[in-house]
Amino acid sequence: MHxxxxxxxxxxxxxCAYAVVASLLGVRKQSSQLxxxxxxxxxxxxxxxxxxxxxxxxxxxxxxxxFEYVASYSAAALPWYYKVxxxxxxxxxxxxxxxxxxxxxxxxxxxSRKRDELMPHVVATLGGVILFFAYMNLWVCNxxxxxxxxxxxxxxxxxxxxxxxxxxxxxxxIMAIHPPILYTGxxxxxxxxxxxxxxxxxxxxxxxxxxxxxxxxLIAWFFLGSGILLGGRWAxxxxxxxxxxGWDPVENAALMPWLTGTAFLHSVMIQERKGMLKIWNxxxxxxxxxxxVFGTFLTRSGIVSSVHAFASSEFAWRFLVFIVAAAILxxxxxxxxxxxxxxxxxxxxxxxxxxxxxxxNLLLLAACFAVLWGTLFPVLSEAVQGEQISVGAPFFNxxxxxxxxxxxxxxxxxxxxxxxxxxxxxxxxxxTVPLLSGLAAGVLLFAxxxxxxxxxxxxxxxxxxxxxxxxxxxxxxxxxxxxxxxxYGTALVDLVQRNTRRYGGxxxxxxxxxxxxxxxxxxxxxxxxADLNRGESTAIGPWKVTLQDLPGGETPVYNWLGAQVLLSKxxxxxxxxxxxxxxxxxxxxxxxxxxxxxxxxxxxxxxxxGITEDGRATVHVYRNPxxxxxxxxxxxxxxGTVLTLLPDRSPVRRAETAPRGAALEAV
Amino acid sequence: MxxxxxxxxxxxxxxxxxxVSQDRxxxxxxxxxxxxxxxxxxxxxxxxGECAMDRCPSSEPIREEVAxxxxxxxxxxxxxxxxxxxxxxxxxxxxxxSGLHLSAWILPGVFLLGGAAVVFTVLRRRRSPAAAAPxxxxxxxxxxxxxxxxxxxxERDVEQIR
Lengths: 667, 162
Description:
The structure holds 2 protein chains of 2 kinds.
Chain A: H1 2-28, H2 32-61, H3 68-73, H4 80-85, H5 91-112, H6 119-140, E1 148-151, E2 154-157, H7 173-188, H8 190-202, H9 208-239, H10 249-274, H11 278-301, H12 313-336, H13 353-385, H14 393-416, H15 424-447, H16 453-484, H17 488-498, H18 500-520, E3 526-532, E4 537-540, E5 543-549, E6 552-554, E7 558-562, E8 564-569, E9 572-577, E10 580-584, E11 590-593, E12 595-598, E13 602-612, E14 617-625, H19 628-645, H20 651-657, H21 662-666
Antiparallel strand pairs in A: 1-2, 3-14, 4-5, 5-8, 6-7, 7-10, 8-9, 10-11, 12-13, 13-14
Chain B: H1 2-13, E1 15-17, H2 28-36, H3 59-71, H4 76-87, H5 102-126, H6 129-132, H7 148-161
Helix pairs in contact in B: 2-3, 2-4
């Protein structure tokens, strides 16, 4: 099986190299056959990449511990589904999987956009990028390496009786889907990047490349965001520290391209409508992809210490060379095309939708810079001053919370501003009700006793944005009913179907508001630690936790001990919960299995930390308000994004978003 | 019987440490100090007050010491300074706002203000009376945002033309 894996990886290298050479030769010789063969080479490479992943998977499922990667991350007693997810538990396998996903995107693009004028250069760019990853798979991080014992007579093949097992923290259903989803987001940005490079390369710099890659960008953005939120969910339910976001370097690595990708999704509308910000948008796409690659470099190089990181010095310098080379080439392309990227229109007013997007972009980029700066500061500090330093959550929260609130405000302000310029009358008309709603919410919360300034601001702005979104829907429905009649519901569905992008976007914004409401709950988190004998209780607010028993047990994979507690509120029983400590047999690692009582108002999060010397159970109880809204917000964002991906039904909208020239045709 | 022996064995493996009153872990000062310090186990970067690692060789003794010092009447700031002296600045969860480390705090603000200055400059420079005229370079772009009412009207007209 490993021969098949190695052969497939070699085939991917050869096919990607061929795709680069053939597509460029095809352009030079104006041979559509060569260009087509290059395109097909990428599709074939995706097939071989799938074979290499299947080969590694087969080794995991067969418990073939002759192979170092399998022995390092699996064990015979591991359930089959965790043997599958062990594929991406380490550096080598996850990079193989990364290449496979990138090739799936490349092949889908090569098949679906084969008539695109930019395709030869897109194929060359994709082939070049994937060639690097395929080279890393084959020669630097090959997951098919066999174990060997070094003896005087030379290395002798060695097969351990069992593997080291999978890190118990990764033995969770979310971990079976979080990495593939996150990777899909990371690698998906390679498509807009390749189109951008191709557009710069060929100087075809109208809005066509942007319109052709809008769905690809949205899909990548959606997967990256979903991956980040799933990671947060995993941290919350599995790690046992009561939170879902710790500003770990690897979390930050995923957040940065998401922020620049979000900026791009907004600023691209200005280019589509007005032919402006061409350099800016090309720069954002390039930056987003480079940040994706930089993110995986951070995760895999060991340059920053992180619980998620796979440290590998072999890997680091090669990746750095690739990132620097890609950055230089992209920057050179951008600089040499500046004249072709001249704006077709001018900004006309400070108070306009366009400037709103510019400030939204500025805030997103400032947040991205703050995250990048904070993540790299320890490395820079050590390099410059020779002094180690930590940059943790207190720094990131202090810097990013105000930026986040400003972004939330812009989420509401943007849709209220008109394109080109907003008159004073329209500002008054559009802003009065939302602003008064926000103000009323803030005053009400203050009157009710809330004193946390950021939390009050967050809730007030949330009210402002929700009223903005509601009024946008209401105005639209009213107009449709005036035009076509019918009920409110029918008009609403009709309205949304006719402009999925706009109204899907508003739903995403609504999801963002819910996320921020969940984030604001952090300001009121409380926790209590208590050592309890059976029958003893600890309280947190109206909640009481009473220890009933200390049950224990064993599975083929781990031993466990639980603290069975009765949770009650205002002395009314709510339920019996059993947070556990588990001792993984293969790794000897102890982990927490938290239990939660989740409501729309708050989560009661129970952690059993262990037993004291005198036999009492140490129970850590967290009271986390509004956490559930984070997950609901994520789901709403999912719905909104799916909606934006659906095609419009309106001929007017289609004409408006089609490339210029096509508009008249459509009408 | 076997279950209780097993439970005892697992319990022994999961011992949290000596039996002490837990009230001292729930004070505001304890929270403040343990959130100002980071775990020094060498890989996790966790905040000491949040480190969930089982019997962490770094966070647990630090938490114990913080609780003891607070009980002995030491001020929270003094305890943080003491740990910074003992371990170096690396133990602090945020860089100090002094010396070269001040740049950690300042640069994001500089980036934002610099960016805002650029945006304002671009907006001022690019605003021109010619561009503002309706007969400018892009006649196809509507003068105002196409409101739902306007879109509905255009749609109706288009349907009539057809």
